[in-house]
Amino acid sequence: MKVDRTKLKKTPTEAPADCRALIDKLKACNDEQLLTELQQIKTWNIGKCELYHWVDMLDRFDGILADAGQTVETMSWMLVCDRPENEQLKALLLAVLNFTALLIEYSFSRHLYSSIEHLTTLLASCDMQVVLAVLNLLYVFSKRSNYITRLGSDKRTPLLSRLQHLAESWGGKENGFGLAECCRNLQMSKYPPSATTLHFEFYAEPSAEVKLDKKATTNNTLHYIHIEQLDKISESPSEIMESLTKMYSIPKDKQMLLFTHIRLAHGFSNHKKRLQAVQARLHAISILVYSNALQESANSILYNGLIEELVDVLQIPDKQLMDIKAASLRTLTSIVHLERTPKLSSIIDCTGTASYHGFLPVLVRNCIQAMIDPSMEPYPHQFATALFSFLYHLASYDAGGEALVSCGMMEALLKVIKYLGDEQDQITFVTRAVRVVDLITNLDMAAFQSHSGLAVFINRLEHEVDICRKECPFVIKPKIQRSSVAQEGEEMETDSEVSDIAMESSPGPSTSTSEPRPDGGESRGPNTVMSYPPRTGVQCIPQRAALLKSMLNFLKKAIQDPAFSDSIRHVMDGSLPTSLKHIISNAEYYGPSLFLLATEVVTVFVFQEPSLLSSLQDNGLTDVMLHALLIKDVPATREVLGSLPNVFSALCLNARGLQSFVQCQPFERLFKVLLSPDYLPAMRRRRSSDPLGDTASNLGSAVDELMRHQPTLKTDATTAIIKLLEEICNLGRDPKYICQKPSIQKADGTASAPPARSSHAAEEASSEDEEEEEVQAMQSFSSSMAAQQSDPEPSQQVVGTEERIPIPLMDYILNVMKFVESILSNNTTDDHCQEFVTQKGLQPLVCILGLPNLPIDFPTSAACQAVAGVCKSILTLSHELKMLQEGLIQLDTILSSLEPLHRPIDTPGGSVLLRELANAGNVADATLSAQATPLLHALTAAHAYIMMFVHTCRVGQSEIRSISVNQWGSQLGLNVLNKLSQLYCSLVWESTVLLSLCTPNSLPSGCEFGQADMQKLVPKEEKPAAAATPGSTSGGKRSEAEMDATAGGVETSAQGLLEGINLDGDTLAPMETDEPGTSDPKGKSKITPAMAARIKQIKPLLSASSRLGRALAELFGLLVKLCVGSPVRQRRSHHPANTTTAPTPAARGTASALTKLLTKGLSWQPPPYTPTPRFRLTFFICSVGFTSPMLFDERKYPYHLMLQKFLCSGGHDALFETFNWALSMGGKVSVTEGLEHMELPDGTGEFLDAWLMLVEKMVNPTTVLESPHSLPAKPLGGQNFPQFSALRFLVVTQKAAFNCIRNLWNRKPLKVYGGRMAESMLAILCHILRGEPVIRERLSKEKEGSRTEEEGPQEEGAAPRREPQVNQQQLQQLMDMGFTREHAMEALLNTSTMEQATEYLLTHPPPLLGGAVRVRQELSMSEEDQMMRAIAMSLGQDIPMDQSTESPEEAARRKEDEERKAREKQEEEEVKSLERYQDAEPLEPDELNAFTEKMLPGCFHLLDELPDTVYRVCDLIMTAVKRNGADYRDLILKQVVEQVWEAANVLIKAALPLTTSDTKTVAEWTSQMATLPQASNLATRILLLTLLFEELKLTCARIVETSGILDVLIKLLEVAQPCLQAAKEQKEVHTPKWITPVLLLIDFYEKMSVSSKRRSQMNKFLQQTGNNWRWFDDRSGRWCSYSASNNSTIDAAWRMGETSVRFTAGRRRYTVQFNTMVQVNEETGNRRPVMLTLQRLPRKEAISKSSSSQFVQDLEKTLEEAKEPEAKPAEEKPNEVEPLAEVAVEKEPREEVKTSDIVIQGLTEEQMTVLIRSCVSMVSVPVDPDTLHATLRLCLRLTREHKCALMFAELGSTRMILSLTQGSGFNGFTPLVTLLFRHVIEDPCTLKHTMEKVVRSAATSGAGSTTSGVVSGSLGSREINYILRVLGPAACRNPDTFTDVAKNCIRIALPAPRGNGTASGYVHDYTIIN
Question: How, if at all, do strands 1708-1713 and 1718-1721 pair?
């Protein structure tokens, strides 16, 4: 396959010159020349480069491989290259494969290679030479990268399977196939005969069986092919394979294996071919090991004798077999690499590595001897390489290293290093030797030192550097040093005529220093003399670089090693410094990593021996380093940059070093790295998984440490940082630059973007990544030198509006910010921040956010986040007000420049932003340039500042929060807020307009609105297209349907817009993810190409405006939280402190400004020419949606401060006015008609829905009155003016809301939003009805309160306004703590306790008065200044604070006064507006009565239109019933029952059987039960009745009984059955919706009848008032009484029919749950049973003889305990399930005792019979699962009597139930059916027997229960009342049977008599004896 160019990214680096030359040379060749060229290249002598540069050649090679790998026409197994006539092609193929292997070894980004499937094909060649060449290439891939493991499985699987065929074992030594034997040239008779026999077994289809004379027998379709002496056949393996495939049907997956066998057997007798086969097998094993592909076959391929066989191969004396030996060594190496310890030890044993005379050590010594002795012939290169590689891998493991040490390998290896040969081949061995030495010195240092290893290393290093000097003689030379430091200093200063220390020592002008250049490259600085002009473009060869790298690495390690400590002191005395100087001077020659290592060696040395730093300074090494790092360009890799501060720390260790360092102006030069395109790739993280941060952050932390080590550097460094920020500002403002899109490369190939990492980027091994980067950096380094000499800032291909230079500005900002962030906030002290602020760094920092050259997506980028992060750090660390002030000032100027956005365009109107874009000339790129689209860029800048403020507002520290509020509440802040609110309104409008322009057909046809600008957007060539389709722009006549469709589209996209602008919405508006028009599928087809082009242009404008809208909304939301003072994150505490501190004036001001915005949004008027009301509606939808998060928190609690301001600013009135406007269609019709009007504008529904949801929150009495965000009750400063009262707010809002709802009530609901609107309306009505009693109660309390206060205020009003009343003692305490009187006073007024006051003082800084200014200034003075001032004062001098001492204080005071006056004025206005609401009267009861009387028709209307509202309707009716009492309740129920009756009658008539005269078809007749309108009416009405039944149990049951509706419903069920059965035959069963609620209703009714009968029995044993309740202590087994008050609380709640009641006893809170009769401790969760004790009966009726009903009552009342099978002992579980579930259905919370005399009769026998028959009929259909559930539930209730159960069974129900399919399943099916079947099986005898078992078991062993908290085995678990309570379910199952059983089984042990005192508290403490 050719390389997929679409996925390529242009690589940032140029190919090295020699590489480029070779590529060009090869490209020019034809095939013959190519062959000769490739055959000459045996080793790689040029630099490494990106595989990217070789793409063209790879494609050509791919063609050659594809040709060679094709099969010949007639034969599917013969490859073209195997044909004898294609010798030339085969030679070319081998050359290509060998060359590619070299190329892959010496390049990176290997994932580009895409000819892998051809390689897989070529493995099936008959010629083993081709196979070996392919394996060689695959070996390089597997060893050098993870290319093979990362292949897709479609390519990897076939490749690996072929490799496994090649690698499989031949039988091993014991079978005569040892590798060594196979390698020897013996006669065939020495090998087993199976060597040339083909024996192959496989399974095949029997049909394809062909009988042949060869022995092919079939046995269970296992076939085998057996051919002996295959080598004698003259045909080639391919031809043999071809004929076999024709004869046998061999499965596809086995064919390749067979072919491999044929090829092996066929060639085995030929020694040469046999050797090739051995070599191929060894290669294949190595590749599989390196590719981690040996999981399953590891043991078969790496079988036990393999290692011995490999070593045997090595021991063959034959010199000819070197290739095989090398392969054998490689295979051993790979096995070592497997990290299998047992294998490693066996390798060491077999090779004899551990002893001096072992086989391997001797081999190595001989090899080395041959290498260094010129008289001997060296071993072949390949073998020697493999041998050294094996040593290296062996040494990497402890066991291997120890073996090498013990065989004395050190001496031999040092010989290699010592021998100064020059051939390149030899260098690679030296490198390997150095690495092995490095590894084994960890274990054995003595041998190294005894052979003076260090000297050997240093000499070798010098030798190699000397060779390099020939190629690159340049070195930086400091002048001869004088001894004295002072002279040294003079020496270093620059001469006047040289403009800068930037000596041109680097080849070519450097890119990152932009100082003026001294002309020519030759001018000398005073302390550097250049010996030769440097050559450009020459690089050190990779082999030598690798050697130098390994030696420097060793030195770096050795310097730190304590074992070397003696010899290391002198290491710098010899030639080492000169070698290091050369490397450090020539970074571009040696490459970044060597440069880095050399500097690190010096650094490590200095830190190890700090005293010797001066000697390094004397020999000039440190100067060379400083020069290379500060004056030349530093190599651009992240490692070098990250190491710099560490290097500088080392160089600055003494005073002389520090002085030299400072003279180089280090920081400015160093920080410029952050603004150079060459360094960008180095700044990026290599992979997202890099644990350490990015280079910039690491650099910042390191500079921070450097500044802390050398405090004198702090000022310089800060100055340099600020300069850096200013430089960014210059780049961002200069019109000649433009910010380029990220990831575009610079023209000259230097990287300004990430290195080429495409989607399959991670495909490189990490080790490779590093070298790849090295080389890239190195090349970009030298090529940028060359390329940029002519043009220092190359211009970019991206078009700007005028030719402008693109720069990666966003990347610069991101890096600089990360860098600054880590310097400032590396640790938590604020000293760096203070320095930064003092040097005026805030201004340039804050300005970055508003730079004109930034792109419009800057605010959402990481760069913007980073700037905000720095600002936030400065604020949190230094608490610096200026931070926020500076931001507000900048934002203010930007908002002023956005003025034109608020001015509507002249008619016909349109979008301001669009007009700007359309007039910009070159539309396509206008958004890129701030000159072309100033408003758009100003919006971007505003957005960036807002992001910064959002960040700072999120800080949780209270001190920072109060600083924030005070800044926003200042004049400047409020001014900005007003402008922001104006901007917000304009943005919503702009977004609305732009969105409608993007949405086809959203505007009326022929409307000119915005069209003129739209026309300009289409590129020139598309103009005619637009003209040709006039429908697209002006729109002809369209049908209604089409209008509807597009309306839908607009609807959805408007929704998108809202979500975009609101906080409530989804975080990302749809329009950003999708073409705006495509949100509606029908509209999509109509978008013309011209329209699509326009939409593409508008999208950036739309996303910019809506993103900014979102950010503003978030900011406003955070400001609300700041004003209200609820911290963003609540601290966790057990008791939320209800400190309602009064908001500060600043907070109040900010809140006013924010609510003004809401008012503005809700009373907004669109420009007069607006084409559709839709625009204004969309605007209001946004405003309403945005109001909610401003007034309410996430839990729907309102902020009272915001509500107060909302009332005062008129927002409240505006909210209700917009409603009237929308509903009256802008005043065109009366409000009452609006909802049902034909022409109601599209969008009204969406608006009303949002509006109702907001109002619903405002009228909720619980949240409004109990909000945690309330205001303090005491008015501040005791002024007597009306305070905000949440109650008044509720009154006013409920009144207004009620009037609005009346206009929507009983109207036809709207299409899309009707359902949601109805839900909100019903909720609002519920709130109003529920709120009424609460409001009345609160108002009456208030009136009483105000009467008592009437007298007080008069006198106080006369007192002066200051000095309000506070507790003097507390005031004194606070002043003793050091707070000022005013401040303490304010705190006490705003809080209620001493703790709160202290908290208030700490969180609210004192008011800014003169004293505060002085303190602040004192703080900002340095310590010395303060000291001087103190001395001066003590001398009596009058010291001015500042030159203009008075003005700041006076100015501050004056400003304070002005602000205070402005505030007071505003507050007076607010007081006036509050007074309006002060006497608001609540809704008149008559009004509400009138509404509730007529409410039902409206409810039924809703139910008919929107059946889902039934639950809310039920809530509303229940609320009304609770308010209006019993008569109203009965009235309502009767009306509902009547409705049910009517609908049921219609259905009964419809269900009459068909007669001959009927016109209906059978299908119509069967489906009418579900389709008639009455059917759905009936369903909703009955569901409503069932829901009311749940709430109003007994009363509802009574009405149902008296009305006789049950007969009608049962009749209906009966007559519906034939319809259902007929439908079943028609195979079209639609279960009517009404059946389920009818069944449930009957079920409820029967349940009520049971419970009412029981209750009436029980009532005989209860007092009329004040029953005695007790709780059970299971440890003592006693029932204890409650206190009198708690007892009456519980009893009253129970009588009222509540389900639970809460009370407090002994400081603990408890809940009693009546339906389980358990008391729960709310803190601990402990449970205790409770019971209601019965009246004492006359003594003579002993308990054991009492009537059965007495038992039942006792049980029922002691406690029905229904849901705890798990608590029962195991053996009785099967019996117990039944009674449990039984009562689960019957439990009933006690209904009001008033109705206790009602007894519901229940169903008659006939009714039961009819019901059972109908139910069975429905099971047989079967009906849908829900209805089936209800049916079976009712059956369960009806079959409790055994005769009913028998009837149920006789109808064949059991079989039907068992044959139901999975489709009819529902949750709880199994237990329900199990119980039904038990009812059938349990005849009275069985039941009695079961019950006896249960009772005996409970009585014998007691019964624990988790539900009621009784521990099994405790004393109480056998107490009689408790046991009877546990047996409650059994008693309910059949009371009479239970009584009999209990009498027979249970005996009672009476308690011992106690003294009078103790017994009184307990009731029947009887224990059971059995």
Answer: antiparallel
Cα 1291 from Cα 1339, distance rounded (Å): 10
3-class secondary structure, 149: coil
**Residue partners of 1206: CB distance under 8 A and separation at least 6:** 1155, 1158, 1159, 1191, 1212
Residue 373: left (phi > 0), alpha (psi -120 to 50), or beta? beta
Centroid of chain to Cα 111? 30
- A 10 A CB-CB count for 372 gives 17
Question: DSSP character for 562?
Answer: G
Which pLDDT does position 522 carry in this prediction?
Answer: 39
Angle at CA 240, nearest 5°, toward 237 and 243?
150
Structure tokens at 652: 């600055």
Q: Are 750 and 778 in contact (CB under 8 A)?
A: no
Distance CA 1776, CA 1769 (A): 10
Q: How many CB atoms lie within 10 A of CB 1763?
A: 15
Beta strands in 743-810 (DSSP E): 805-807
Task: Provide φ and ψ at 199, rounded to 5°.
Answer: -130, 115
Tokens of 1141: 């501190």
Structure tokens at 403: 């073996």
482 DSSP assignment: P
Q: Does 1233 have pLDDT greater than 80?
A: no
3-state secondary structure of 1634: coil
| 8 A C-beta contact, residue 321 and residue 275 | yes
- Give me the count of residues in the chain: 1970
Separation of alpha carbons 278 and 1736, rounded Å: 105
Alpha-carbon distance of 1344 to 1482, in angstroms, equals 17
Q: Which of 935-949, 1281-1295, 1318-1332 has the lowest mean pLDDT?
A: 1281-1295
| Closest to 1879 (Cα-Cα) out of 1844, 1853, 1851, 1850 | 1844
Residue that is written with structure tokens 């229960």 in the block: 1905
Tokens 């709640």 locate to: 1693
Q: Rounded CA gap, 983 and 1277, in Å?
A: 37
* Contacts (Cβ under 8 Å, ≥6 apart) of 1004: 1171, 1172
- Give the relative orientation of helices 453-471 and 542-560 as an angle to the nearest 10 degrees: 140
**Residues sharing a CB contact under 8 Å with residue 564, sequence separation 6 or more, in sequence order:** 445, 449, 454, 558
**Do 1635 and 1827 contact (CB within 8 A), yes or no?**
yes
CA torsion 1576→1581→1584→1588, rounded to 10°? -160
The radius of gyration computed from the CA coordinates of the chain, to the nearest angstrom, equals: 47
**Which tens digits make up the pLDDT trace of 283-335?**
888 888 888 777 667 777 777 777 777 887 777 777 777 778 788 788 888 77
**Which pair of structure tokens corresponds to residue 1669?**
């309740």
205-214, 1224-1233, 1570-1579: least confident range: 205-214
What are the tokens at 1418? Answer: 């004192």
* Cα distance between residue 474 and residue 1403, in whole Å: 65
Question: How far apart, in Å, are the Cα atoms of 189 and each of 176, 862, 1070?
Answer: 11, 76, 80
CB atoms within 10 A of CB 120: 22
Six token digits for residue 1245? 């529904």
Q: Which tokens sit at 1448? A: 């700041």
Which residue, among 1074, 1000, 1020, 1072, has the nearest Cα to 856 in the 3D structure? 1072
The Cα–Cα gap between 1165 and 1179 comes to 10
Q: Hey, how many other C-beta atoms are within 10 angstroms of the C-beta on 1077?
A: 23
- Which are the contacts of 883, defined by CB distance < 8 A and separation ≥ 6? 837, 842, 846, 871, 874, 875, 952
Phi/psi for 1746 (5° steps) reads -65, 160
The torsion region of residue 649 among left (phi > 0), alpha (psi -120 to 50) and beta comes to alpha
Cis check: omega of the bond before 361, within 30 degrees of 0? no
